[in-house]
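Supplementary Methods S3. Complex input for the (2S)-2-hydroxybutanedioic acid-bound model.
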Amino acid sequence: MKFALMVPFLLLGLGLHIDVRAMPIIIKYSHVVADVTPKGQAAIKFKELAEKKLAGKVQIQVFPNSQLFGDDKEMQALLLGDVQIIAPSLSKFDQYTHQLQIFDLPFLFDNMAAVERFQASPHGQSLLTSLSTKGIYGFGYLQNGMKQLSANTPLYRPQDAKGLTFRIQSSDVLDAQFRAVGAKPKKIPFSEAYLAMKTRLVDGAENPWSNIYSQHFHEVQPYIMDSNHGVLAYMVIGNAKWWNALPPDIQKGLSEAMAESIRFGNQVAHDEEATFRSHVMAQKHVHVLPLNADQLQLWRTAMQPVWKKFEQDIGQDLIQAALQANR
Ligand code: LMR
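Predicted complex, serialized as structure tokens:
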């Protein structure tokens, strides 16, 4: 049997359900947020660009809002070949590497520009390729924005969070961050977060403005603090075996489309963060509360001891490099 004819069978043997001989190649890109968010817009842009560059050769199917897989299942689905591209938050890689936990350290990055500088640095770029041994191909980093605390009550000082339950992503750093202020963290998939807030299974949460607005979290968490205490960013990843088996011309077209879509998504994250915030502020019964420098310092002092706890796993050199990105 000629090699080209054998490829589909070889891939099936690898547990991948993709036939690279059949045209167009169907590529599923699954994520958990709304189309209007930076990630949602980047995924749509990728579809447009890839299908234009590789007309008739690829078909990109985008599944937003956890329609295909929730964030608790998507990584496994990627490794099994049930989906080809996903873009999990950097908080959701705990099982695969401890180094990406750096992005969850509270008050480490001053702003998203610092996050981008760190990601573009040799340290950041080596994290991007570090997952290849786990079967994960890293296309690039995608931004969302700084996270804001929200709750049913105002949270001016860390003491205000004491005893409250907070929805968190599946990250041990975020778990420690809320324990540090005497709160009770609860790991809950993104698609279940709204209901958890509405039914008061949790009292509070932390999200960037685009997610607060597009998931209507403000309807069930009327107090939102401008805390900017942490970061929500993503890594766009593919199944490495699937990627490596693609013909070179397809890889080239997809790489170009992906790079351009990530640039586009990052521009959206930058340009539209303030707009999402103002959309939230315009809603009835919502209180967006600024925190003054003294209040922010109290939160920083309470949460920062978490760095020490994870320093060894993450690496002191990496933390120093991240701090330097603040300039
Ligand atoms: C979350 O679970 O809060 C986020 O990771 C969702 C997302 O993908 O923005």
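The CA atoms of residues 302 and 327 lie 23 Å apart. Confidence is low (pLDDT under 50) at residues 1-15.
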